Structures are given as structure tokens and as C-alpha cells.
Amino acid sequence: MGYSDGFVAALSQVVSTLRDEPATQVCVRIGSDTVCRSCPSLGAGGCLRYGMGVVQQDVRVAGVLGVESGDVMPWADLQQRVRDRVAPDDLTTLCEGCPWLEYGVCAQGIADLRAGQGITYEG
Ligand code: SF4
Predict the structure, then answer these.
(1) What's the CA-to-centroid distance between 99 and ligand 1, angstroms?
(2) Is residue 70 a part of any domain in this protein?
(3) 44 C-alpha vs ligand 1 centroid, how far in Å?
(4) 14 domain residue, yes or no
(5) How confident is the model at residue 91 (pLDDT cuts 50, 70, 90)?
(6) Is the beta carbon of 100 within 6 A of some atom in ligand 1?
(7) Cβ atoms of residues 62 and 85 within 8 Å
(8) What SS3 string covers the chain?
(9) Considering only CA atoms, which residue is closest to atom 2 of ligand 1?
(10) For ligand 1, atom 6, which residue shows the shortest CA distance?
(11) Residue 110 lies in a domain
(12) Ligand 1 pocket: which of 106, 110, 120 to mutate (most atoms <8 Å of CB)?
């Protein structure tokens, strides 16, 4: 369900690192981030596909999680914020306009997280 084989491989690597090493320090980014770096839609000015819409989405999510761009914390702490503050149904609003929303995999991921499982993305 990714944008390209390169994007899927890069995302899988990020997920593996976070899953295996939850103490990994992550930096919150409003705008393009490590995951976006391998996306064919990333241009010099940002996302060529979704433009400012995806930045506004980042702002909404950061507000819910109580974080700001540039904040650094262990992945486990950020994951706990998601667990505590985001319910599966919240994605209907938080992710409005995202073409992946209708597949339900992200809402299921949030439900799994709240049930005590970590991220389970397999690429
Ligand atoms: S539906 Fe999934 S892929 Fe889309 S913005 Fe939400 S979490 Fe990201």
C-alpha cells in the first residue's frame, strides 16, 4: 500500500528500528520527515501530492499529542501519548482526506496499540 518499493523499504526500516528499540530518540516534525525522504512525491518545497493539507494534518495531530515540531523524546513516550490520547474513531477527523483512511488499517493499528500491542506494520 506504499508509494513505491523504495518508500516501503524505507518505512519498513523505520518501523523495525522503533519496534525493536523503543528507547530510540525521535524528533517531532511538522512537515516532511524521515519517512517522507524516500517518497517520490517529496519535492523541494514539500509534498507535491498533498501540499499544505498534510502539514495542517501534522499540526492537528501534534495538538492532540501535546507536542511541537522539534520536540525530542524516546519513541516509547510518543507512542504512549498516542495510546492515551487517540482513539481509532478519532482518525476520521484527524486524517480527513487521506486516501488510506478508508482501508481501516490505521484505525486497527491504533486499536492494537491501545490493546497493548506495538506497531505491527510489515511493509
Ligand atoms: S489514515 Fe493512516 S496513513 Fe492516513 S494520515 Fe491517518 S494515520 Fe496516516
Answers:
(1) 8
(2) yes
(3) 23
(4) yes
(5) very high
(6) yes
(7) no
(8) CCCCHHHHHHHHHHHHHHHHCCCCEEECCCCCCCCHHHCCCEECCEECCCCHHHHHHHHHHHHHHCCCCCCEEEHHHHHHHHHHHCCHHHHHHHCCCCCCHHHCHHHHHHHHHHCCCCCCCCC
(9) 106
(10) 95
(11) yes
(12) 106
Is 44 within a domain?
Answer: yes
Domain tally, the chain? 1
pLDDT tens for each residue of 33-72: 999 999 999 999 899 998 998 999 999 999 999 999 999 9
**CA 57 to ligand 1 centroid distance, Å:** 9
Q: Which pLDDT belongs to residue 117?
A: 82
Q: Which residue is closest in CA terms to ligand 1's atom 3? A: 100
Residue 75 sits in which domain range? Answer: 5-114
